[in-house]
Amino acid sequence: MNSDMGRTSGQKNGPEVLRLTAGDGCVVLKRKAVKLMHPYDNELVIYHMRSMLSEAGFNKTDEYILAAAASELATNILRYAVDGEMQICLVQNAHNHLGVEVFASDGGPGIADIEAAMREHYTSEQGSLGMGLPSVKRIMDEFEIESIVGCGTRVRARKWREHGQD
Fold this sequence. Notes:
single chain; alpha+beta; Heat Shock Protein 90; six-stranded mixed beta sheet; 6 strands; 30% helix
């Protein structure tokens, strides 16, 4: 289910709201929320992501790669929305598989064209490589994004631990 749910709107119209939520469809075993207002808050995201991954039984290599994905989402919030929140959750699905979910939400300007934002090397800001969102999608097992211009953006991404992983 590595799809861009990609609901977007060019304008803020009446009852249109962001609907993506953290933990939807899973049992949340543990949750850590990090408010993002300052660049150093990204360090907390990395720390809590690695802690949650370790608790879920992911190996060290996965810890580093998946923490980088969470850091990318936090960086996007700090760069484009100024502030927001990340929720890092230890989750369990209906098949009793453990995983980690990262949920990023902000009340920033929103993404006018999610399809373009999901293309490699696309950037709306000079000096950016444009690799962030496509990299997060590639790294994670599940990826969903929604955005409304003038309202904000939400991303939910999950990585499931493989059975027998040391």
